[in-house]
Amino acid sequence: MLKDQFRKRCQEADAPCWICGMPIGYDANWKQPSAFEADHFKPVSTHPHLALMMGNLRPAHQSCNRSRGNKPAVENWVRADW
Q: What's the pTM?
């Protein structure tokens, strides 16, 4: 699955949350605010054609991703060379 592959890449790179810049709890339970969640840089609600594109995903905390919702984002995270 795409999100599982993305999570693995992010965990191996120890990628921080692209929204707040803080470390992500990759081993945290999914219910915890600091847990990893794949965020769609361009929201699926406005860009459904990008839903399954790896390049549209960013590592985020569960809480950061959910508080951002489908608001437009400004790219402020420099992705590792994967």
A: 0.81
